[in-house]
Write a structure and sequence with these properties.
Layout: E1 15-19, E2 24-29, H1 43-55, E3 62-67, E4 72-74, H2 79-83, H3 88-106, E5 112-116, E6 119-121, H4 123-130, E7 133-137, E8 143-145, H5 159-167, H6 169-178, E9 181-182, H7 184-189, E10 195-197, H8 202-216, H9 233-239, H10 245-263, H11 268-283, H12 285-300, H13 303-320, E11 337-340, H14 344-356, E12 361-364, H15 368-387, H16 393-400, E13 403-406, E14 417-420, H17 426-439, E15 445-448, H18 455-459, E16 468-473, E17 482-487, H19 493-505, E18 509-514, H20 521-537, H21 542-552, H22 558-565, H23 567-581, H24 592-596, H25 614-619, H26 625-630, H27 641-662, H28 668-679, H29 688-695, H30 697-711, H31 719-727
Parallel strand pairs: 2-3, 3-5, 4-6, 5-7, 6-8, 7-10, 11-12, 11-14, 12-13, 14-15, 15-16, 17-18
Antiparallel strand pairs: 1-2, 8-9, 16-17
Helix pairs in contact: 1-3, 3-4, 3-12, 4-5, 5-6, 6-11, 10-11, 11-12, 13-28, 14-15, 15-16, 20-23, 20-27, 21-27, 27-29, 30-31
Length: 753
C-alpha cells in the first residue's frame, strides 16, 4: 500500500492532530486512499515532525495514538517497500529508521496511549509497544500479533526487544516464532494491553487512561517483566533461568533444538529471532536493537523471504480474483446451502459454510446414524472454540443450529447451491444430480467435492450442465486453507463467480482450474505419492522416506500422508490416474497387497505406522510387518536422503508443469498457491513454478533426464520445461511462458527443437 508522508506541498498528512480541551492530543493515522494503514519508510519523518510539534506545546498533557480508518489500526509495514530493498545494508538501515521512529514515541515527555481497533500487526504492534500503554476493543476484528516470521522476516522496529520486556520471554517467543494473532481479551490476559473495552468508548477510555498516567507520571521503560521459559514451571525452577547465565544458555539452546526439530533449518527467520532476543537479554536493549537491524538486513535479502513475500502477495491478489475473466459477470446471492453427505468432509463443509460464511446449511445423509456423527463432528469444532474462548456458549448454540439435518430432500427447494461429498462413485454422483434437479431449487448450482472424477463426466447426465461445477475441499476442511474450484467448458461464468465468492466467505484461498482427471492438486499429488511407493519397493525404510521429505520442507512425509488419507483411497485414485496418464503413473508391484491385507491406514489402525496406543502413535513407530506384506527388505542408508527427496519432489514439479502446458491452470501463481496451501509444498520454496524459476529450468530438466535414464518414463520432462530450458523462459516475470504453451512466451527467444 502506498501513501504520502504529508510533508510535501498540497499533500495530505498521514498523521492528523486533534487537540482536546482536557489536554489530550489525539494523533490519528490515516494513509490517504487506502482501506488499511501500513507503514512506509517516508512516514518516519512525519512521526518525528508531529511529536516535535506536540513537544513544543505546554498545553499537551498526554497523547492518544489511534487510527483514522474504520476497522484497522496499522496492518504492518508495506511489503512492497521491503521487496524493493536491494542490499542487506539498505534493509538494516530501514530497520534503524523504524527503531528511531518508535524511540521518539517511547521517549516522549508525556504519556502516549495506543487506542487499538482492528488489525494491529507487525509494525502496527511495534508502534503500540512503543507507547506507554495500550487500550484495545473487544471486537472480533481486533487482532494483535507479529507475523513477520511468516514472511521470512523478524520484527524490525524494536519489537524483538520491547515485546519480551512487556509480556515475558515465553509469550513473546510464542507470538514471534509462530506469527499467531490474539484478540483483545487474550492480549489483556497476557499483559499485552492494559484494558479491553467496547468500540464506542475506546477513545474516551484511552484519553482517561492517558490523563491518569500523566497525573501519576509517565511510566519508565521496564526490564523483562517476567522471565518465562518455553518450558514448564518445573523446568524453569530447576534451571533458575532468570538469574543464572548458564541457565539462560540452556534455555536458548533448548529452544533452538526444539525449533530446529520443527523447521529442519529451512526457516532462518525463526532462528534469527531467537538470536536477537537472546542478544537483547544478555547485552542490553541498545545492543539488541542493532542485532535486530543486522538480522533484518540479512533476512530481507534472503531467498526464503523472497519466496514467502511472493506467497503473501499472491494470496492478497487471489482475494481480489473473482475466478472469471469477464469483469461484467456478477456472482449471485446464496442464502442457503444444501449439503449431501454428513461424513468428515460433508460435516466440515457444513461447518465452514454455517459458522464462517454465515449461510444456513441443510445437511442430508442416508440415515440418522450418519447425521448424528456429522453433527457431533461440527459440535466438537464449536466446543473447541468455546474452550479457547473464541465463542460464547450462546454464540456456539446459534451457529450450531444453523445446520439442520434431514434424511430426505425436504428443505432443499430454497438452497441455491448444493454441494455433494458422497463416495467416489460416478453412478452415485449422477443420481445426486438427478435428485437435485427433481427436488432442489429451480436454478440450483450442483457442486461436487470429488477429488479425482472429472466434473465433465458428473455433468454428463445433467439437464443443466452449465450449473455443474467442482468444489474440491481438503481435509480437515476447517483447518486446510485451499478450495480448488473446477470448471468445465460448459460451466456458466456466474456459477464460477458465485462459488468463488462463497469459498472466500468460508475463509478459503480459492483457485479456479479447468476440468480433467485429478484436476490440478490430485493430479500432481499422484506422481509424488507414486514415487514414494517406488522408493519403498526399492527398500528405502519408511522413516528415512518420510524424514527426507520433511527435511526438504513438507509438513509430513508421503507415507504418513498415505496412512492419514487411507491406503485404499490411494490405491483407488492411483488406478484412475494410471488409466488416464499411462506410463508415468505406473505403480510398483505389490502395493495392492496392502489393501488385501486390510491395511487401510489410521482409520482402521493398520498401516505403515503403529496405532495400538497413544504412546505408539505419538512416537510414530513403524509397523515393520508392512515390509513383509510388500515383500521388501529394508535397506537403511542405501539411498541418499537428498535423492529420496528430489525424486518425489521433482515428480510433483514435473506434473505441475504438465498441468500448466495442458491448460489446466489459469496461471503459474495459482499452481504455486494450490501446491502450497493444498498439498504442503514447502512455502519457503515458493511453489513448483517459483521453484523451477529459482533453480533454473535447465537444471531441473537435466535432473529429470538423469532420473529418466535410471527409472523410466515417470521422469520424462514436461515439454514446457524442455522448451524453457532451451529458450530461457520462466514461469514468472518478464520472460514468462503462456499457460497452455510449450515454451517461452512473447518477447522470449524461442529455440528450435
Amino acid at each position: 500500500m502506498s501513501g504520502e508522508s504529508g510533508n510535501g506541498s498540497g499533500s495530505r498528512r498521514v498523521l492528523e492532530i486533534e487537540r482536546r480541551s482536557d489536554g489530550v492530543a489525539v494523533v490519528r493515522m490515516d494513509v490517504p486512499g487506502e482501506t488499511m494503514n501500513t507503514l512506509q519508510a517516508n512516514f518516519a519523518a512525519e512521526f518525528a515532525q508531529v511529536f516535535d510539534e506536540l513537544d513544543q506545546s505546554s498545553e499537551v498533557r498526554a497523547v492518544v495514538f489511534t487510527s483514522g480508518k474504520r476497522d484497522s489500526f496499522i496492518a504492518g509495514a508495506d511489503v512492497r517497500m521491503i521487496k524493493a530493498v536491494k542490499t542487506a545494508a539498505e534493509a538494516a538501515e530501514l530497520s534503524r529508521t523504524g527503531q528511531r521512529a518508535m524511540a521518539r514515541v517511547a521517549s516522549f515527555r508525556v504519556p502516549v496511549v495506543a487506542a487499538i481497533h482492528g488489525a494491529c500487526l507487525g509494525g502496527g504492534l511495534e508502534t503500540a509497544l512503543a507507547c506507554h500503554a495500550r487500550i484495545a476493543t473487544d471486537d472480533k476484528k481486533t487482532k494483535l500479533g507479529l507475523p513477520e516470521v511468516q514472511l521470512g522476516l523478524l520484527p524490525a522496529a524494536a519489537g524483538t526487544q520491547r515485546l519480551p520486556r512487556l509480556i515475558g520471554v515465553q509469550a513473546a517467543l510464542d507470538l514471534m516464532l509462530t506469527g499467531k494473532q490474539v484478540d483483545g481479551r487474550r492480549a489483556k490476559a497476557m499483559g499485552l494491553v492494559d484494558d479491553v473495552v467496547p468500540l464506542p468508548v475506546l477513545l474516551e477510555v484511552a484519553c482517561r487512561h492517558a490523563l491518569s498516567l500523566a497525573d501519576r507520571g509517565r511510566p519508565e521503560p521496564t526490564g523483562f517483566a517476567r522471565f518465562q521459559s518455553i518450558f514448564s514451571k518445573r523446568e524453569l525452577t530447576e534451571l533458575a533461568l532468570a538469574e543464572n547465565p548458564l541457565g539462560r544458555k540452556v534455555l536458548f539452546d533448548q529452544a533452538r533444538k526444539r525449533l530446529l526439530a520443527k523447521t529442519r533449518g529451512n526457516y532462518p527467520a525463526a532462528e534469527r529471532i531467537l538470536d536477537v532476543v537472546k542478544a537483547g537479554f544478555e547485552a542490553g536493549f541498545e545492543r539488541g536493537l542493532e542485532a535486530e537491524a543486522l538480522a533484518f538486513g540479512e533476512l530481507a535479502t534472503s531467498p526464503e523471504a523472497a519466496q514467502l513475500m511472493y506467497l503473501f502477495t499472491a494470496t492478497v491478489e487471489l482475494k481480489k480474483d473473482r475466478g472469471v475473466e469477464d469483469a461484467s459477470v456478477e456472482s449471485r446471492p446464496v442464502h442457503k446451502v444444501g449439503m449431501l453427505g454428513a461424513g468428515l468432509m460433508g460435516a466440515g463443509i457444513a461447518y465452514v459454510t454455517s459458522s464462517l460464511a454465515k449461510v444456513p446449511v441443510r445437511l442430508k445423509d442416508k440415515g440418522d446414524e450418519g447425521l448424528a456423527a456429522g453433527l457431533k463432528y461440527v459440535a466438537g469444532i464449536l466446543d473447541g472454540r468455546v474452550k479457547k474462548k473464541r465463542l460464547t456458549r450462546l454464540e456456539r448454540d446459534r451457529l450450531f443450529f444453523q445446520i439442520t439435518p434431514t434424511v430426505d430432500y425436504s428443505g432443499f427447494r430454497d438452497a441455491e447451491l448444493v454441494i455433494e461429498a458422497v463416495f467416489e462413485d460416478l453412478a452415485l454422483k449422477h443420481q445426486m444430480v438427478r435428485d437435485i434437479e427433481a427436488h432442489g431449487h429451480e436454478k440450483a448450482i450442483f457442486a461436487s467435492n470429488t477429488s479425482s472424477l472429472p466434473i465433465t463426466q458428473i455433468a454428463a447426465g445433467a439437464k443443466h450442465p452449465e450449473r455443474v461445477i467442482g468444489m474440491h475441499y481438503f481435509s480437515p476442511v476447517h483447518k486446510m486453507p485451499l478450495l480448488e474450484i473446477i470448471v468445465t467448458p460448459k460451466t456458466a461464468p456466474w456459477v464460477t463467480a458465485t462459488c468463488v465468492e462463497l469459498g472466500k466467505k468460508q475463509g478459503k484461498t480459492v483457485i479456479v482450474v479447468n476440468d480433467g482427471v485429478g484436476f490440478y492438486t490430485s493430479r500432481i499429488l499422484a506422481p509424488y505419492m507414486n514415487e514414494a511407493a517406488w522408493l519403498l519397493s526399492e527398500g528405502v525404510p519408511v522413516e528415512e522416506l518420510d524424514g527426507a521429505l520433511v527435511d526438504w520442507g513438507y509438513p509430513v512425509g508421503p507415507v504418513t500422508l498415505l496412512d492419514e488419507v487411507g491406503i485404499d483411497v490411494g490405491e483407488k485414485v492411483g488406478k484412475i490416474m494410471l488409466g488416464a496418464f499411462g506410463d508415468r503413473m505406473v505403480p510398483p508391484p505389490g502395493m495392492d497387497k496392502l489393501v488385501a491385507d486390510q491395511r487401510l491406514g489410521r482409520k482402521n489402525a493398520r498401516g505403515f505406522y503403529l496405532y495400538g496406543d497413544k504412546k505408539q502413535a505419538k512416537k510414530r513407530l513403524v509397523d515393520a510387518s508392512a515390509y513383509a506384506v510388500l515383500g521388501v527388505t529394508p535397506k537403511p542408508g542405501a539411498t541418499p536422503r537428498h535423492e529420496i527427496a528430489e525424486r518425489c519432489a521433482l515428480a510433483m514439479v514435473n506434473e505441475a508443469a504438465l498441468c500448466f502446458g495442458d491448460g489446466v491452470l489459469r496461471s503459474a501463481r495459482d499452481g504455486d498457491i494450490g501446491a502450497i496451501f493444498g498439498l504442503g509444498f514447502p512455502p519457503f520454496r515458493g511453489g513448483p513454478f517459483r521453484y523451477v524459476d529459482a533453480v533454473g529450468a535447465l537444471d531441473v530438466v537435466r535432473r529429470l533426464e538423469r532420473y529418466e535414464k535410471q527409472h523410466g518414463k515417470r521422469f520424462t520432462p514436461a515439454p514446457v520445461l524442455v522448451e524453457m530450458a532451451r529458450g530461457g523462459g520462466t514461469f514468472h516475470g518478464e520472460r514468462a511462458v503462456a499457460v497452455g504453451s510449450r515454451g517461452p512466451g512473447k518477447g522470449a527467444a524461442r529455440a528450435r527443437v
